[in-house]
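User: Can you predict the 3D structure for this chain?
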Amino acid sequence: MNKELMEALDILEKEKEISKETLFEAIENSLITACRNHFGKADNVKVEIDRETCDFLCYAEKEVVEEVEDDVLQISLEDAKEISPKAKVGDIVRVEIKSKEFGRIATQNAKNVILQKIREEERSVIYNQYYEKEKDIVTGIVQRYIGRNISINLGKADAILNESEQVRTEHFRPTDRIKVYILEVKNTPKGPRILVSRTHPELVKRLFEAEVTEIRDGTVEIMSIAREAGSRTKLAVRSNNPNVDAVGACVGVNGSRVNSIVDELCGEKIDIVNWDENPGNLIQNALSPAKIVAVFADPDEKTAKVVVPDYQLSLAIGKEGQNARLAARLTGYKIDIKSETQAKDAPGFRYEDYVYDDEEYDEYSDEEYDEDYDGEYAEEDSEGAEYTDEDYGTEEADEVVDEEESGEEE
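Assistant: Here is the predicted structure, written as structure tokens:
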């Protein structure tokens, strides 16, 4: 029994997570390579390794002939009978090859074959390990800045946090521990290339899944999420158990759960609202903390008209239109917000048009609401603000608020 080889294989399997079978195959290939370097060819060379004892046998299959023309492929009848007394011309006999007889170059080549296979398998193991974590969050340590990108050590591999996936308000130093969302894992000749993000909305979702037990076990479900990284996130949740408050479960006792996520996101504000199958109620919840007078939602056109008290207009729209913008993305509706005064002054305004009828929309199912709606922001005129998917993300968006009401309310 080859104890030294067995111990070496056990250590490699434990530390590198490379299966023994793969290592055995690497050893077999290395011995065949050594034979090819030693004899010039190895078409007739076979290697057998006992998986239990690690004893190996390297031999060449040679044809028995009267006169030997190629001593690598043929053997004389006289020599063949020394190996097998019953051998006769035309038979194939096994001639053992002593690996100790290999030259230095052949031995070095065999070693390189084994090392190369180990490196390839190690890269493959790391790739598979992180490929399984794609679209999930992991904890990493900030290593260094590469230009404007950040190299983050994830343990067995390094990931790249590109500038486009960084939150502008966040600043990290080497050795800082941060959570990142794995966007993509690519397999390259130099090893896996892992791209991560701190701005993706799914990062917030995964953080809640990790922090809130009710979300992990399915009691509470995240229906939609809208995020402006570094500033604010809106989250719509619903409970599958009438005895469990979805918002309360996410907030935690004295805000303990949501506060830990806010700390991880470096102070980013998080609004958690109840999901409602009625689009009018959902829009009302999404525009919180603003109070809503009336909502008229059209599920076919994905549009909604919202009336708010005069003093609540700036709060409903939010700073630079953020509140209404996020509400549009969260609900998937193009939202037109007007104050009561603006609505009454509008041509053809009838207050009853803005009254929401629950029965009218009960027939619409969850499938008709696009959770991944990429709602965007557009400004019309001083009569109101309309939020749609055409201009969202423009940094120069202004509040549609009269100068007298231009106070910023969060």
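DSSP finds 13 helices and 17 strands in the chain. The longest strand covers residues 177-188.
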